[in-house]
Amino acid sequence: MSLRQRWVLHADMDAFYASIEQRDRPELRGQPVIVGATSARGVVAAASYEARRFGVYSAMPGFRARELCPNGVFLPSDMARYQSVSRQVRAVWEEFTDAIEPLALDEAFLDISGSLGLYGTPLALARRLKQRVHEVVGLRVSVGVAPTKLVAKIACTLGKPDGLAVVQPAEVEKLLDPLPVRRLWGVGPALADKLAHLNITTIRQLRLYDPEWLRRQLGDRAVELQARARGEDGREVESARAPKSYGEENTFLADVSDRETVVAALSAHSEAVARRVRRDGFVGRTVTVKIKLAERQAASSGAVRSDRLYPVLSRQKTLPEPTDDAVLLQRAAVRLWDDEKLAAPIRLIGLSLSGLEAKATLQLGLFEAPGTTAIGPTLDAIQARFGTQAIRRGAESPEKVTPTLRWKRGE
């Protein structure tokens, strides 16, 4: 008896934030709408397809978006509204399966293998899902259906906007072969350059390359890369996927070089990360500081996006014990900053905590000395009742934190 064919559906709302704005404000329909980037140092949160024709895309610096699209309609983000619509979309997806792995507010994997008895074919189910999303929220969603996550996502991306693609098992190689290797997960600019030196630029060339020779060049990852080139991806749709890290970052309104402002931002980030980690019942061991320098570097003609011109540094430290304490995170982050001894100004600072484990699994030491961790839950309770501005540690200086942090906090 043959095993049941697995079918994974990748759903991705089209230009989600911008589409919501156009839906709710008819005068914006057909206009190049750009959400975010309303301040001098802001970045684009979303761009309508009209704006994308000018080369504007998510995460682009606002000044560059204005250069490319000077007549664009720039709007502030309304995260509460976007989250509300996201919940409506999620409710629609749940009509088709309970095996849903969310990737963002507007994107998810769905395992529809067990739902086909109600619809007959993957194509029929996908068409009905697209129809239901439009009926409920008045927005378009692109859909890719395939035997694996990898192929479903690629098929969905290739079909945007408002796309619908179903890739049968026998059609996987036909879909992937002509695509550039950068389409594969795990192939960034550096690895793509290395593959290009081996005359590998397409997925087909990677798939057919001599395995032994490729392994000599790339090591053990060569096996996994060629498996992906064949469309192989054994990952399941994880409905209750555990987070890998928690992070906060902000772009300063003006370039920063003084330690006081950096420490204030890192303190605020530490509090925000620790609060989220405690809320979800985790502790973490590895603190990472992300620093974006203010001086622009020359564009590289070979870069995928040549206007990402600000160098980014990343430094990390592993703590002796996992923690959810903001003070310990802040101390580690500040030490990383001080060790870097940067003289150049920066435009962005971020902090993240990884190496996570469930707090319930930890065993407390019998003679553990009292520390600062007890204050965290108390702060959480007060802020939950009276607001995030009601109380904070003296080290935090929110007036020096840019609006990007407050946006991420949901304030």
CATH level 3 topology of the largest domain: Alpha-Beta Plaits
Which quaternary structure do these chains form? Answer: single chain
Helix content: 25-40%
Sheet with the most strands: spatial strand order: 5-6-1-7-8
Beta-strand residue fraction: 15-25%
Number of helices: 16
What string gives the helices and strands in order? EHEEHHEHEEHHEHEHHHHHEHEEHEEHH
Radius of gyration: 23 Å
Low-confidence stretches: 299-307, 366-373, 395-411
Largest sheet: 5 strands, mixed
Corresponding CATH superfamily of the largest domain: Reverse transcriptase/Diguanylate cyclase domain
**N-to-C terminal Cα separation, in Å?**
55 Å
Structural class by sheet pairing and helices:
alpha+beta
* The CATH class of the largest domain: Alpha Beta
Overall structural domain count: 3
- Kindly report the average pLDDT value: 87
CATH architectural arrangement of the largest domain: 2-Layer Sandwich
Shape label:
globular
What does it look like?
By secondary structure, the chain is of the alpha+beta class. The chain folds into three domains: 1-166, Alpha-Beta Plaits (2-Layer Sandwich); 177-229, DNA polymerase, domain 1 (Orthogonal Bundle); 245-409, DNA polymerase, Y-family, little finger domain (Dna Ligase, domain 1, 2-Layer Sandwich), CATH 3.30.1490.100. It contains 16 helices and 13 strands. The chain has helices spanning 16-24, 49-52, 62-68, 79-93, 116-119, 122-137, 149-159, 172-176, 189-197, 203-208, 211-218, 221-229, 259-280, 326-340, 375-386, 403-409; strands at residues 8-13, 33-36, 44-47, 73-75, 100-104, 107-111, 141-146, 164-166, 245-256, 282-293, 312-323, 346-354, 357-358. Helix 4 packs antiparallel against helix 6 and helix 11 crosses helix 12 (221-229). The longest helix has 22 residues, at 259-280. It is globular and about 60 Å long. It starts with 7 loop residues before the first strand and ends with a helix. Mean pLDDT is 87; it is low at 299-307, 366-373 and 395-411.
